[in-house]
Amino acid sequence: MKKILLLFVLGSFYCCSVAQDVPAFIRDSLDTYVERAIRQWQIPGVAVGVVKDGKAVLMKGYGVREAGGSDSVDENTLFMIGSNTKAFTGTALAMLQEEKKLSLDDRVQQWLPDFKLYDPWVAKEANLRDLLCHRLGFETFQGDFMYFDSDLSKEQVREKFGKVKPLYSFRSRWGYTNAAFLVAGEVVHKASGKTWAEYLEEKIFRPLGMNRTLALSKEIGNATNRASAHTVAAGTLKKIPYGNIDNIAPAGSISSSISDMSHWVMAQLDNGKYEGKNVIPAAAIAATWFPHSILGNGGHRFNRAHFALYGLGWMLNEYAGRKLVSHTGGVNGFVTSVTLVPEEKLGIIVFTNTDANSFYEGLKWEILDAYLQLPYRNYDGLFYGLQQAEQKAEDEWLAKKKDTIATKPSPALPLASFTGDYEHEVYGKMNIKNEGGQLVATFEHHKGRRAVLEALGGNRFLATFNDHLYGTKVWPFTIENGKVKSVTVTVADFVEFTPYEFYKK
């Protein structure tokens, strides 16, 4: 699987308590564990941080910022943290509540009179909590293909968000809704007089000494000591562009380092205090940790875990008798995790600069179990085995499709019948052209993104995007009376599960 030699470098190891207080896994096995995972998963760089009893016990970098390069990852290297941004947005609104500038029970339209949803009654009744706990009725990731890495402005995202028909009824079930956090960020602006990014900078980043942390994705390209974004496509590690997600910034655009994030974790675990100063009101932290939505019964492969809930930008779980407050983040080329164990005054941060690994979660569980004196489980080996099995199944599925394509099956109609302009009632336009005997689909709001369509016979085509993040899917066309009526477009689950029906003009 590997095409490059990764350099392993030790970052800084801070031991702020006596050695025997640090679990043996961290003292004796962490380096071997991480370096093995880097080779196995093809991860260019990793950063790991552990906070215990108000101190940074561990801040360590491994590998390189960019594949093929020699610049080491250290505790100050910036990674995009993806949806770990959401806890900052939830905290900002909770802080504004403590400033008496709003109430989390306020209806959204009190602050944004132009706020719309598919059902006007839901738009009228939705409150600020609903925005932050994923209970508006949408399917997880519903609408994200439209917003993610698109040329839409945040105003256009809000407009389209208001037209998407939720799959479920209001407050009936949990469904992860990124665009709702954009709306929450606009409320921060209205209530504080500062943009979402300005409010975070003034009220959270600077007071916590998070001096390298950036609120917007457009800023990381010019930053020093930054990790590049990577993915693994067809078994090959490749560098990819940073995600362009400032149109939904409050959902996932922050870039930070483990050093900066350790300050955030320290404040979270000490009722909002950092270096003796009250930065975040304790009541604001309590508000974000309060359960609002039910995800399920929880459960864990090895140890006790009895529930899974969601607060305001935080996942809430019970694990081995402790409350966990955590979140993960995935964005183009990065996956990250942040975990708090309040009763143990323990915080765990893991950043990686490829979006094609589960190591970031495996290491989190390993460190957590070590501190809770639970047995070593080799989570990374388990997750890697599951990923390999999944990849094998996917490869076999794709090979069968390619075998079918190789037989040159006839489509239901001549290729020219499939070409032309298509439109989705919310997304907008898509075009399919015949380029040298091959159908190619392009999208109005995703410049440079294209999907090659290969005939599988009848009304079905295999659509392969030029951006690996968007995947390879089967697109069926609807044909009526000898003419193409529509095509059902799907993309990789990482982006969105919900299909889009584009109708031929």
Please explain how this structure is put together.
The protein folds into 2 domains: 19-389, Beta-lactamase; 408-504, Lipocalin (Beta Barrel). Strand 10 and strand 11 form a beta hairpin. Helix 1 packs antiparallel against helix 13 (359-371) and helix 7 packs across helix 8. Strands 2-1-14-13-12-11-10-9 form an 8-stranded antiparallel sheet, with helices on both faces. An 8-stranded antiparallel beta barrel has the order 15-16-17-18-19-20-21-22. The relative contact order is 0.13. With 505 residues, the chain is α+β, with helices and mostly antiparallel strands. The radius of gyration is 23 Å and the shape is globular. It has 14 helices and 22 strands. Residues 1-20 have low confidence and may be disordered.
- Uncertain segments: 1-20
Helix amount: 25-40%
Secondary-structure arrangement, i.e. CATH architecture of the largest domain: 3-Layer(aba) Sandwich
* CATH superfamily caption of the largest domain: DD-peptidase/beta-lactamase superfamily
Major β-sheet profile: 8 strands, antiparallel
The number of helical segments is 14
* CA gyration radius, whole angstroms: 23 Å
Taken from the alpha-carbon principal axes, the silhouette is: globular
Strands of the widest sheet, in order across it, are 2-1-14-13-12-11-10-9
N- and C-termini, Cα separation: 44 Å
Whole-number total of structural domains? 2
Question: What is the CATH class designation of the largest domain?
Answer: Alpha Beta
**E-strand count:** 22
According to CATH, what is the topology of the largest domain?
A: Beta-lactamase
Tell me, rounded to a whole number, the average pLDDT.
94
